[in-house]
Amino acid sequence: MLSLQRIESGYGESNVLRGVSLDVEPGQVVCLMGRNGVGKTTLMKTLMGLLKTRKGSIQWKGQELSTHDPAKRARSGIGYVPQGREIFPQLTVKENLLLGLETTAGVKAFPEDVLAMFPVLATMYGRQGGDLSGGQQQQLAFARALASRPGLLLLDEPTEGIQPSIVEDIRQVILQIKAKGEISILLVEQSIDFVRGAADYIYVMDKGAIALQGTPRELDMSQFEHHLSV
């Protein structure tokens, strides 16, 4: 499982995260919600080692990760789909996908079961990543992160700015992963409907801290609106 205890992190001399604690149990889909600018992406970057943990503990499968670099965290079984996708636009779809195997020693063929989740990608192997639509790029980034068979997947707003048909495709992939129970997911998402349909547990952030938490059944709409409205 993933366990964060009183995490503090930020940029320069500014602290953004203020004592954030959360848990993701094996096989769970945990959603992180909140207004823009409250620290959700900062938390994901801190989890992945792209920002330094100033205080607190990050434990994954009982191992302390707070001093590990991003590559070591990836090798420990953490996959990451960042906000903005960050695919390589000049590389082909196939080359982008194969980069997902970099943390998997000895594996050179992209897993067929992952490709089956994103069938459109197999028809675009030779196209440059930059020529894909935003939704197709998101699918590419998602598939690339799954290539290494992570035990934990970090998804930072995977449905942002994407056409509804691909949002539904992504939701179905998340539900497939959830049904198998082999991968835990920490998902940053703004859509209440999307979260209610996928999450086992929800954390809501405000001003760099956890303001609200519970299962979808425990949290009512008025609580969401208070912390999510602009």
List keywords for this structure.
single chain; 230 residues; alpha/beta; Rossmann fold; four-stranded antiparallel sheet; 10 strands; 33% helix; 26% strand; globular
Summary, kept brief:
The chain is α/β, with parallel strands linked by helices and 230 residues long. It has helices at residues 40-48, 70-75, 93-99, 112-117, 119-122, 134-146, 164-180, 192-198, 221-228, and strands spanning 2-11, 14-24, 29-33, 55-60, 63-64, 78-81, 152-156, 184-188, 201-206, 209-214. It is globular.
CATH architecture: 3-Layer(aba) Sandwich
Helical segment count: 9
DSSP summary, beta strand count: 10
Following the backbone from N to C, one meets helices and strands in this order, namely EEEHEEHEHHHHEHEHEEH
Strand order of the largest sheet: 6-7-8-3-9-10
- Name the poorly predicted regions: none
Return the average pLDDT rounded to an integer: 89
What share of the residues does DSSP label as strand, in percent?
25-35%
What would the principal axes of the Cα set say about the shape? globular
Distance between the termini: 33 Å
Q: For the record, what is the CATH homologous superfamily label?
A: P-loop containing nucleotide triphosphate hydrolases
Please bin the fraction of helical residues.
25-40%
Compute the gyration radius: what is it? 17 Å
In total, the number of domains comes to 1
CATH class: Alpha Beta
The structure class reads: alpha/beta
